[in-house]
Each structure stands twice: as C-alpha cells, then as structure tokens.
C-alpha cells in the first residue's frame, strides 16, 4: 500500500470542522471498547565509520558469536541535526585551553584557608617520604658486624642518633628549653631566644621536631614577639604547647590552628608576670591539672589552660620576710602537685609548697657558690622511694646531690672545668643522671658504678656551650641543645640506660656510703676548728 499523503496545516483544520459537523448531524453515537494493537517501528539505522573509531575485528569463538546473536541491543535513535551541531561545539570547547588565572586570582587561592591547610598537611607528609632512608644492603648473617665490632664496642655507651637544626629559625639562637611529648614520644619541642643577626625575625621561636621520620625540617614552627625562655607540651592536651617569655607573658600555641602565632596569651599586668618566666610546668591529673609558672621576681602563678586572662592563684616566694627569691629553675617530685624545689640567682636552693598554712618558701639549702642553672627531682619509680633526692647544677662548675631531709649537700661532683648549665635524672634508672657544660660535654653519672668520674662522656663537635639536656621518657635517648641553635640526640647504650633488678638496693647502699663519708668529713672539720 502507498504511504498516506500528508495533510497541510490549513486543510487539516477544515477537515476537522467537517468531521465534527457530520457527527452532530448523525444523532447519538454508540460507544464501545476497541482493541488497540501497539506496533513499534524502529527508526532506520544509519551506520557511519570514521578512521578514528574503526577497530580491528577480533576473532571470537563460535559460542560467543551465537550468544551475541541472541542478545538484542536497542538501536540508538537518530540524532537531529541541531543536537549534532551542539555536541560538536561542546567538543571543540572542551579541547580549548583552560582559563588562565590572573595574578590576583592566584594570590587569592594561595592565601585561602583551604589551600594553606592542604599545603601545610601535604608538605609534611611528602617531606617524611622523601627523607626516609632504608639500607637495602643490610646483611642479617652478621658479616657486616664482624668488621665493625670494635667501633660498636667503642660507641656502645653514647652514639649519635640525630641532629636538628634549621637555617632560618634556629641559627644563632640559644636553645633555652627542651621537652618531650608524653602523648607522642617522638615529638620534641625546643624553645629559642632572639637572633641578634636577624632583627626583622620574631624574637621568640618554638620548634617541634619529629624523631620518627628522617626529615630535617621541624614538624611545626611557632613564634612570638618576645624571646621564649621555657616551653613544655601541655600534658593531657597533645595539641597545645606552652611557652614562658622574657617579657613575662605566657603564650599558648595550638598545632590545629594554621597560625604560627599564639592562640592565647596572658596579660602583661600586675595580676600576672612582668619579669622573665624561666619555669613552666603542667602538674596534676587528667581531670584536675594546672599550669604552674614562676618568674624571676619570685612570683608563682597557677593557671587554667582554658583561660589565661587571669591566674587562678598567685603568690610571691619570699624567704623569712627578706627580698623575693629570683627563681631560675623549678622541679616537682614525681606525683606531687603541692611541694616543689627551686633554684635561685644568688645560688641558694629552696623547698616550697603551693597550698596550706605554710604556703611559700619552706627551707633554704646552701652550698653553691654561683647561680643555679638547673634543678631536678629524682624521677625513677621502683622498689625504694628516692623522691626526697634532687640534683642541681651551677655556674660554680659543680653538680650537687641533695636530700630534702638535710639542708647541706650530700655530695658534690666536681669533674667539670666550665659552667654546668643543666642536669637531669634518668626517668628509668635510679642511680643515673646527666649533665651538660659550657665546653660542649655531656656526662652520664651512674652513682652505683662511680661517684668520682662520669660513667660516660661525649663532646659535641665544635664544642659549643650545651645549654639544656633532656631524657626521653624511655630513658634510651637523650637530647642536648647548644648555644648555636643545634639539638643533638644520642642513643644511650643498653648497659647504661636499662637498670638491673638490684639497682634500687645498690643505690640505697651507695647513699648510705655517701652519708657515712659526709658525716666523717663533718666530724673531721669540727675537730680542726678548735686547733
């Protein structure tokens, strides 16, 4: 049959009118159900091939061909000419070169919060990956160790592990304080004072270094406008770092913030500190802890880390109604939040307490002939309680051992030939402490072995003055900071760092021997006086 002729627009309208008029003339119409048959006529397929889309025919097994014959795939409809032209325009647009950002748009992206956060996080990860060094030639059979056996034995006591130094942030700055994180043992915070050669840089800097990765740049860089004299990780708050400054302000940095400047700071007012703060320490428990700070005018303040606008408590450390004690160092016994010891500029040592009817200075201990540079209470917990012991270092070239039960030193260690700048007990070994001096020497003293000479000594290359020493919490590594802004980490040999089971009992006997010798010396001195 021939295809029906199309009806023109005008003819269709006339035809419809005639049809309706005829229906009305016939009268009522009977309606009924009609059977509808739906027929689908697929559009005619137009197949075109181009050189770019034609592919070679792969030989397939007959089974696959039969399966493909059974599957009926819907045929794509014919695209109108308009859509084809639109698609061609879109394809040509996609191939066009991307929009070139203006200098202003680039700067806007570079300074956006999202980009800075992403870049800071990403560079830290990339630096870690680039700095990893793995010895693929390590021989597990031990052949390499045979040649190096002599070297291993020679360096078994103290061996160099890492060095931390930053050309911009630590060069020509004195390391004023060191502290290891209790939550992340691989993190070390170091505070630095001002760099006189860089007057336009911030006076105060605190850098967080990472021992876990081999990267040579600090994990975090913090700074403020006054030299940082002391710094500590805020115990129970792993993201916070506290700094005590030369101006008297206490500053708080947060590594969750993209800012390198403090997120909180104390006011410079009579209610807080107005003199240099050489001592900051977080004491207490997870649910009840405070930040304790002492300045060189003898003022001690207790703070809540949530609010540094005003101290919770403050008092002045004065001995027997005389002038205030110029505090240079402070230490709390393990587990004690009330009693503490302080060293002073005039060379005296004091015990003090924060609360109670006798709050303030309790006792004075005399023995040093110069300012106290470091003080530390016994830290190793074991079978015998030695928390009454503490050690001090001084400008008088000595380290002294004390007990809170006697205001005279138990023993004086006099092996140094320069100022002794810092001292610290081992956190794990009862008879072991470390000290550093102005000639670049680190000494480890094991009192169970010898009280006359150090058990191990090492000098930093270049012999810079070593200003600070800090054991890791494991007692297996020790960090020292010098006057040139460099931090050196040493591994301590197992035979020195790890205590044997009988070390506490042996140290008890060592102390008894020291006390007996001191009593004999005092008795001998007393007999000489009348003569």
Automatic annotation (TrEMBL):
GN (gene name): DYNC1I2
InterPro entries: DYNC1I1/DYNC1I2, Dynein_IC, WD40/YVTN_repeat-like_dom_sf, WD40_repeat_dom_sf, WD40_rpt
Organism encoding this protein: Sus scrofa
Keywords: Acetylation, Cytoplasm, Cytoskeleton, Dynein, Microtubule, Motor protein, Phosphoprotein, Repeat, Transport, WD repeat
Region annotated Disordered, chain positions: 48-107
Gene Ontology annotations of biological process type: microtubule-based movement
Record family assignment: Belongs to the dynein intermediate chain family.
Compartments (UniProt record): Cytoplasm, Cytoskeleton
Function: Acts as one of several non-catalytic accessory components of the cytoplasmic dynein 1 complex that are thought to be involved in linking dynein to cargos and to adapter proteins that regulate dynein function. Cytoplasmic dynein 1 acts as a motor for the intracellular retrograde motility of vesicles and organelles along microtubules. The intermediate chains mediate the binding of dynein to dynactin via its 150 kDa component (p150-glued) DCTN1. Involved in membrane-transport, such as Golgi apparatus, late endosomes and lysosomes.
GO annotation, cellular component aspect: cytoplasmic dynein complex; microtubule
Ranges of biased composition (kind: Basic and acidic residues): 83-107
Protein name: Cytoplasmic dynein 1 intermediate chain 2
Domain of life: Eukaryota
Pfam families attached to this UniProt entry: Dynein_IC2, WD40
